[in-house]
Design a protein that fits this description.
single chain; alpha/beta; 10 helices; 7 strands; binds S-adenosylmethionine
């Protein structure tokens, strides 16, 4: 199974020998890759949608992995038994959907050692949820696929002090380890905010004034982070 850069970066976070659940597996590419490469002895793949469930099941059967990949239909962590897996992957969904999945099955979620989460949007909300609900972000990864950045958050149970708001948005771990894509990621954020500022400056409404103030403040924060990147690490 040849994976795309996004799916490969997610899979590379799985510890060899771990028992994994892939929630919202869709095509089941991650479970197939994990057993094919001998990274996991067993994977549970879940799906809420009947169409993707059937598609995933057919793919697993076609590749001859029905003994190692268990397919279950259902919502989020609900198809899992408490303590059945040590790692949970939730990828390719919105951050708010991921939060809902974790909070709907709190008693199961607190027994999981490692979460590999790849939100498509609302990354900020997801980081904030994790840090304020008994998880800690132990690492982050990023990759570029078709000119789009993807953020992968690795979390475990634990306590972490709350961060400055900017780090919920940018990912402190990516900054701390000077991830090779971080500066590019930051530059993209600055250019997006610049376009919004230009548009609002043309509008000149009272509402736009308030929004402009907060966007300019955010832009300034981005520039400060960028400046820190250039300083030698202490
Ligand atoms: C865009 S696909 C991502 C598939 C794959 N995880 C990936 O990263 O490429 C999202 C999948 O999650 C499933 N899904 C959404 N909410 C879910 C939930 N609460 N429980 C299980 N599956 C869910 C959808 O049916 C869909 O197949």
């Amino acid at each position: 199974m040849k994976l795309s850069p996004r799916l490969l970066t997610i899979s590379s976070q799985v510890t060899k020998g771990s028992i994994v659940a892939d929630i919202g597996t869709d095509h089941a590419y991650i479970p197939i890759y994990l057993v094919e490469k001998g990274i996991c002895p067993k994977v549970i793949a879940t799906e809420i949608g009947e169409g993707p469930f059937k598609r995933a099941k057919a793919e697993v059967q076609k590749r001859g992995y029905t003994d190692k990949i268990q397919m279950r239909i259902g919502d989020g962590l609900k198809p899992l038994k408490v303590g059945e897996v040590d790692t949970v992957i939730i990828a390719g969904m919105g951050g708010l959907n991921i939060i809902e999945i974790l909070s709907n099955s709190r008693e199961k979620a607190i027994k999981i050692n490692k979460f590999i989460l790849q939100p498509m949007v609302a990354q900020k909300e997801l980081r904030k949820y994790l840090i304020t609900h008994g998880y800690k972000i132990i690492d982050e990864e990023s990759c570029l696929e078709d000119d789009k950045f993807y953020e992968i958050i690795i979390a475990s149970q634990g306590h972490q002090d709350c961060w400055d708001d900017i780090w919920y948005e940018l990912g402190l771990r990516l900054f701390e380890k000077r991830h090779e894509l971080f500066e590019q990621f930051l530059d993209k954020k600055i250019s997006t905010i610049d376009k919004i500022i230009t548009g609002l400056e043309r509008g000149k409404s009272v509402h736009a004034e308030n929004k402009l103030k907060s966007l300019k403040h955010r832009r300034q924060q981005y520039l400060e982070v960028k400046k820190c990147l250039q300083k030698p690490r202490q």
